[in-house]
């Protein structure tokens, strides 16, 4: 299988050189690398263009769209499998692509998500959140599993996800324009088209965030709007159940380790997530009512 690696960037000079170096050193290296840069002001595009075998496509920042930009890049790619990564993710080892390709031996599988492990400098609650959301166990699922999995059935993350290109094109490509969660929307399309999705716990990237409460609120406001806008496509799956499980699991772990202060910070982070999500759903509901 030919593999096309696509990396959307915006002011990613601190990350891009190391990411490209590690990806070119994979046991199964990508056959092509396309960096789509949104008018970076820190030399990201120039750094990427200087790396061997990398093609850079520059776009205006206002033209970036989570679904539309990825759809454009996928249609330009030549690989049988298109691997999307974000600029701030790093492969854990040199077998990331090799392991992501393995589930495609099953002809039903149209997309494979990677495990995310928090970076060494991540705060304790962020490490616990990643461990909860991205376990070591691999799995494969289909639309028949949606009632049991709920919202988790759609959780493929474009932080690091590989797609069978022909399957994506067959379902019309990525939704565009979208506020966020283009990966979940693509997962929904693929599942309801009869494909299977896979999560490969052996394929891992280092990735985590250090978001302020304001940033967490804003991020989840967009997620809430997206989930409300497309709730019928998601079979009205609710995030509250998964959020409650996350809160309980991570809180128990932090308290078990005696990290009371960290647990309080995590509770504040969860409150920002919940309030943002509820606000986003309310805004989208009001917009819908006005139509």
Features:
single chain; 291 residues; alpha/beta; nine-stranded mixed beta sheet; 11 helices; globular
Helix-and-strand structural type = alpha/beta
Number of strands: 9
Which spans of ≥5 residues are poorly predicted at pLDDT below 50?
A: none
Separation of the first and last Cα atoms = 46 Å
Question: What Rg, in angstroms, do the CA atoms define?
Answer: 19 Å
Order of helices and strands: EHEHEHEEHEHEHEHHEHHH
Q: How many helical elements?
A: 11
How would you sum up this structure, described in words?
- The chain has helices at residues 16-24, 44-49, 66-76, 96-101, 124-133, 146-149, 165-170, 182-192, 213-229, 240-256, 260-290, and strands at 3-9, 32-38, 54-59, 81-85, 90-91, 109-117, 139-141, 160-164, 196-206.
- By secondary structure, the protein is an alpha/beta fold.
- Strands 1, 2, 3, 4, 5, 6, 7, 8 and 9 form a nine-stranded mixed beta sheet that branches.
- Helix 1 links the parallel strand 1 (3-9) and strand 2.
State the gist of this model.
With 291 residues, the chain is of the alpha/beta class.
Please give the structural blueprint.
Layout: E1 3-9, H1 16-24, E2 32-38, H2 44-49, E3 54-59, H3 66-76, E4 81-85, E5 90-91, H4 96-101, E6 109-117, H5 124-133, E7 139-141, H6 146-149, E8 160-164, H7 165-170, H8 182-192, E9 196-206, H9 213-229, H10 240-256, H11 260-290
Parallel strand pairs: 1-2, 1-4, 2-3, 6-9
Antiparallel strand pairs: 4-8, 5-9, 6-8, 7-9
């Amino acid at each position: 299988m030919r593999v096309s690696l696509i990396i959307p960037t915006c002011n990613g000079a601190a990350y891009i050189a190391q990411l490209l170096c590690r990806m070119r050193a994979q046991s199964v290296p990508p056959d092509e690398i396309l960096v789509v840069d949104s008018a970076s002001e820190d030399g990201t595009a120039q750094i990427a263009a200087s790396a061997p075998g990398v093609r850079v496509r520059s776009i205006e920042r206002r033209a970036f769209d989570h679904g539309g930009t990825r759809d454009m890049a996928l249609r330009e790619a030549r690989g049988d499998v298109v691997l999307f990564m974000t600029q701030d993710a790093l492969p854990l080892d040199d077998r990331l692509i090799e392991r992501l390709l393995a589930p495609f031996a099953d002809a039903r599988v149209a997309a494979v998500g990677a495990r995310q492990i928090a970076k060494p400098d991540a705060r304790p609650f962020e490490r616990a959140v990643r461990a909860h959301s991205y376990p070591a166990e691999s799995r494969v699922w289909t639309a028949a599993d949606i009632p049991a999995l709920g919202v988790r059935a759609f959780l493929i993350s474009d932080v690091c996800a590989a797609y069978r290109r022909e399957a994506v094109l067959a379902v019309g490509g990525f939704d565009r324009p979208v506020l966020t969660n283009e990966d979940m929307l693509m997962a929904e399309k693929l599942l309801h088209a009869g494909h299977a999705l896979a999560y490969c716990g052996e394929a891992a990237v280092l990735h985590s965030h250090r978001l302020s409460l304001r940033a967490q609120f804003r991020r989840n406001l967009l997620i809430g709007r997206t989930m409300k806008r497309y709730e019928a496509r998601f079979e009205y799956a609710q995030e509250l159940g998964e959020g409650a499980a996350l809160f309980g699991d991570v809180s128990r772990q932090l308290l078990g380790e005696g990290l009371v202060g960290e647990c309080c910070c995590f509770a504040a982070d969860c409150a920002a997530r919940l309030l943002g999500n509820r606000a986003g759903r309310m805004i989208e509901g009001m917009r819908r009512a006005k139509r």
